[in-house]
């Protein structure tokens, strides 16, 4: 059987929910939200671990304290969400080598400065190469400028710094809208209700809920969308369990990784310009591994919150955080892996990952530390509803890619973190993108109605 509604929203992460809310607030209420997993939130996801609530996906509200107010921070303040200020800047002074010695702050600061300079140089070279390419395309002649090669990191300390600079905080290399617009501060969400509490509150504004549970049958969980048949008359959505839903429009909020995978078939296929834009955007994998200990053996205190392990393999259990600021007495450490290391760890057993983490910790803190009593390894890469953690546009990417990733294809509208030109990769990016797409569709529906009216009066 099939039912027809005005709009189907695919995905109930922050962008899908915020888009649906805009629709509902503008009188488009016959909507259906199809979510593949058994909960809303998507990449905002808490789990109980070691007696506290930990965030497997987004953990920070990034960009606070600046000239403009971060809308997600506003939601958090409104809901009294418990947060904790994080100061990453100290991380570089807590670099351990493999024999457990802390790199002297002078050396660390020098290496850091060198790495920043080199990254800036690399960026300039790339910009220049790009400009030359453009000049050549436009018939200009090769300027043959000699560009200074950036130095490549070699020692474990240099590799560790390179890792935190490129895989975490490029802000020192090039301006990032999140920090320029909203401020440089970052707050870790440390609330038993979870980061996703903000989403439930948002959903409550337009979906029927009772005792904190969404009971509105316009939200359908465990509905994996596998096919979108679209024409100028509307869209037919087919789910894995054989259900068929029809609507005038679809808002597709699945991640860039899912768009790149073959989970959803488009019939007819997406046009070439769309397909190519989707292929151009990189997917970043970012994995926070949680480890629970019987007692604390690491230095605590705010300026010790983050520490770094310098190893000859780049990104090998490099970036560590203790959770004592967020949850005192929880005895939990978090180590963050990215990209190839994330994929490697997802493919092996948790026991193996635990063994590797313990060896690294014993390098830093000596052989007598206790074994972890629990481990949690989230899998964002092998999750077929995610296929990665967030979009990662090339630093020098042309605006056309953004435009094409976001642009609708007939009656299919696109949203999600990856469609936010300024704030892609962040929760507020997803939130603002949802509002944007919601508004664009409301406008489209209004125009459509006007056209209908006109054609009727003509008759
Ligand atoms: P999603 O949350 O992915 O929502 C899309 C939804 O679509 C999902 O619920 C998914 O299940 C569903 N779906 C997928 N395929 C289908 C299908 N075929 N049919 C039906 N439904 C489908 N941001 C920050 O601001 N601060 C941080 O500290 C931060 N850290 C992060 C750490 C990690 C490990 C990760 C993974 C992300 C992090 N982010 C962070 C990024 C942030 O989480 C995302 O930008 C944001 O949550 C994306 O929201 P979205 O609605 O665009 O996508």
UniProtKB/TrEMBL annotation:
Annotated positions binding FAD: 15, 35-36, 225
| UniProt entry tagged with the keyword Oxidoreductase | yes
Identify the pathway. Answer: Amine and polyamine degradation; spermine degradation
Which InterPro entries did the record assign? Amino_oxidase, FAD/NAD-bd_sf, Flavin_amine_oxidase, Flavin_monoamine_oxidase
Recorded source organism is: Cicer arietinum (Chickpea)
Q: What's the family?
A: Belongs to the flavin monoamine oxidase family.
PANTHER family recorded = FLAVIN MONOAMINE OXIDASE (PTHR10742), POLYAMINE OXIDASE 1 (PTHR10742:SF368)
Disordered: where is this region?
126-153
Q: Where is the composition biased (Low complexity)?
A: 134-149
In alphabetical order, the GO MF annotations are: flavin adenine dinucleotide binding; polyamine oxidase activity
Q: Which cofactor does it need?
A: FAD
Q: Which UniProt keywords apply?
A: FAD, Flavoprotein, Oxidoreductase
Q: What is this protein called?
A: Polyamine oxidase 1
Q: Answer yes or no on keyword Transmembrane.
A: no
Record-annotated Amine oxidase domain positions: 14-436
Q: Write out the GO biological process terms.
A: polyamine catabolic process
């Amino acid at each position: 059987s099939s039912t027809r509604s005005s709009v189907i929203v695919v995905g109930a992460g922050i962008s899908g929910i915020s888009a649906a809310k805009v629709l509902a607030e503008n009188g488009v209420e016959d909507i259906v939200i199809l979510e593949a997993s058994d909960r809303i939130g998507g990449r905002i996801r808490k789990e109980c671990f070691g007696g506290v609530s930990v965030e497997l996906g987004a953990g920070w509200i990034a960009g606070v304290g600046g000239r403009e107010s971060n809308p997600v921070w506003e939601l958090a303040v409104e809901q009294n969400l418990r947060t904790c200020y994080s100061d990453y800047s100290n991380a570089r002074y807590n670099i351990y080598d493999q024999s457990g010695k802390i790199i002297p702050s002078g050396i660390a600061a020098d290496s850091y400065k060198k790495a920043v300079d080199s990254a800036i140089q690399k960026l300039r070279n790339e910009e220049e190469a790009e400009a030359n390419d453009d000049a050549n395309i436009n018939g200009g002649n090769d300027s043959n400028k000699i560009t200074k090669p950036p130095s490549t990191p070699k020692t474990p300390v240099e590799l560790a710094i390179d890792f935190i600079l490129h895989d975490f905080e490029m802000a020192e290399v090039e301006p990032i809208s999140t920090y320029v617009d909203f401020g440089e501060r970052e707050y870790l969400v440390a609330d038993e209700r979870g980061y996703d509490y903000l989403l439930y509150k948002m959903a409550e504004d337009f979906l029927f809920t009772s005792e904190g549970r969404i009971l509105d049958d316009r939200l359908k969980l465990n509905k994996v969308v596998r096919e979108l048949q679209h024409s100028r008359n509307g869209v037919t959505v087919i789910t894995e369990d054989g259900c068929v839903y029809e609507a005038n429009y679809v808002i597709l909020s699945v991640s860039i990784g899912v768009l790149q995978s073959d989970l959803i078939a488009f019939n007819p296929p997406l046009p070439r310009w769309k397909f190519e834009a989707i292929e151009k955007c990189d997917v970043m994998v970012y994995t926070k591994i949680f480890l629970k200990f019987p007692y604390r053996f690491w230095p605590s205190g705010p300026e010790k919150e983050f520490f770094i392990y310098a190893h000859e393999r780049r990104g090998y259990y490099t970036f560590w955080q203790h959770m004592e600021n967020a949850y005192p007495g929880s005895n939990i450490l978090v180590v963050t892996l990215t990209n190839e290391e994330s994929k490697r760890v997802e493919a092996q057993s948790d026991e193996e990952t635990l063994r590797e983490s313990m060896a690294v910790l014993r390098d830093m803190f000596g052989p007598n530390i206790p074994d972890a009593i629990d481990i949690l390894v989230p899998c964002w890469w092998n999750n077929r509803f995610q296929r990665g953690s967030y979009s990662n546009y090339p630093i020098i990417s042309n605006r056309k890619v953004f435009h094409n990733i976001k642009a609708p294809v007939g009656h299919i509208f696109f949203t999600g973190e990856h469609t936010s030109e300024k704030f892609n990769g962040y929760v507020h990016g997803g939130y603002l993108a949802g509002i944007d797409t919601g508004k664009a569709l409301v406008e489209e529906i209004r125009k459509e109605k006007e056209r209908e009216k006109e054609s009727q009066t003509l008759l």
